[in-house]
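Cross-check.
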Amino acid sequence: MKFHKKISMMKKLIYILLFAVVSGVNSGCSDSFLEVNDNSSISPADFPKKLSDLDLMLVSIYGVQHEWGFLGHFWHGYSMYCLDHTIDLQWRGDESWIGICAGKAQLGDSKISQEWRDVQKGVYYANSTLEAIATYRATAPESEKAAIDTKEGEALFMRGFYLWHLQSLYGQPDLNGMGVPVIRKVPEGLASMSVPRASTKDTYQAIIEDFKKASVLLETQKDNHRATKWSAKAALAKAYLFADKPDSAKIYLEDCINNSGKTLVSFEHYKNMFNGNTQYEYNSESFYEVGNKAQPEAANANGSRAQNTGSTVSLLYTPFYIDPADDERKAMGYSNQYMHDQNLKRFGYADKTPFQEMEQVDGKWRLKPAYVTQQNNRRKLVGTQADGPDPRLYVSALQPFFDSVKVAGKFYKVAQAEFGKWYNLDAATGLKKDDFYGWPLRKNQYLDGKLEETKNVAGANFYFIRLPDIYLMYAEVIKSSNPTLALEYINKVKRRAYGFAPNAPSAVDYKSLTDKTKAPAGDHLSNNPLLYERWAEFFGETRWWEDVRRLKLGAQESAFFKTVAAGRNIVWRDEHYAMPISPLEFETNTNPAMRQNPGY
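Predicted model, tokenized:
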């Protein structure tokens, strides 16, 4: 992490402690820790003095997940959803935002530079905590060894976690390309803040080392609300795969499959695990998830960049609803984004747009009864109709006129993502009635009211690695050596999505690794069950961009999605795989090997 002036280690520790206090995360530490002789500083003699002191620092590392520039607000709607075309823009007045979606990200744009600052903060806090753990371990009683190991394992896992996300947005995908700075200790002055970019290969190696050490140190960790050894082993398998070390990945994938005790949840459970309902979170298929909790009663819990324990990401893509009082579409938040219409085609939805199926009866507009019947049957019989969509469409998105949302305790029908009368489409938008679907996203949405009712803070957890990811990675690493078994693991994921038992043959099984998927003809996923399942299963979970980068799918994806923001052409260029690093970094980091990504 870079700062504009030298600060002492003691002041850094104070900042970490203050961050931990305002983060709202329950650390379980006593207030007596803050009773020091000099209230303006913390001396090495006072800190860390006891085991709970370390936990207070550890909490600060987890707290960074909620930072405004990371998963607290920016990560989804400003970067990942734009890059992988999860969304299209309903708000079309921001050229820099359109540029991120269209392949023309701009140097210095805060929407893709604040992530650099806040994710780096997680690495910094992890390093600070690891140094404190080393200091405390030197004099700690033997009885605390296991507990210290656990805390060190958590800190290492989180450092790898933050480095992973930094690489995913700013590092080049080529293993011999430029990765991100790998910082392993707290900077002691300006000179030590000038660090080079590691290669992508070395960046992944650093991530691997952290996850590998964590997987050993977390042996006794039982709290699945935090990082566990299985969190680390699953993440390690993924890091090995991305580092092009499939043999090593296979070892950990098989360990996770055979020994973790993880199982796929039912489809009904799967459908309900993305919207903040705690009975469905931390479930049997989750290896690690970012725990969000909306606490609107807290003074600092709001969507105005104050630290909190939830996230405001869904503020950017909240649904529209139909208010029967005036027949208007109304937004439930900023509602700047909706699911890109091309995603409906990829899910296998090919029905007419609602505007093509409206009629006027007695002076009032309505959907044609035959269309309503057709759509209700699609939903009732989902997964059983040959010309119907993948069931995961209804997990990932809300269907206008058929799904409902709650506003001030009352339910209203979801509307297409635009303003005005629900039966009109303003020609000034540039949208066409025969092409526009406008389905809002469902994953990570707060469905029990307007987001302002919780001060714009939502409590839906974000999943980092789930068992389907393990299954599909395993299928990838064995598809050449054992295609039959690879196909079985792909089918396990599909079966659950269609409501079948994952471990028994079903009527929806793919027959080969090149079988037809729900993706339309001409889409590069139309005969690639492995990639299609990765796309469909994790849609809206910010994971697809990782695969687009790794497998160099950018040009093919751009050709499929074609346009954004009502007709702006997507122009692919390989430089777009890595976003521009914040110019502020180069003001303080003068190392000649700290270079900007090309194309910016």
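Residues 324 and 412 are 8 Å apart (CA to CA). The chain is about 40% helix and 10% strand. Passed to J.P. for a second look.
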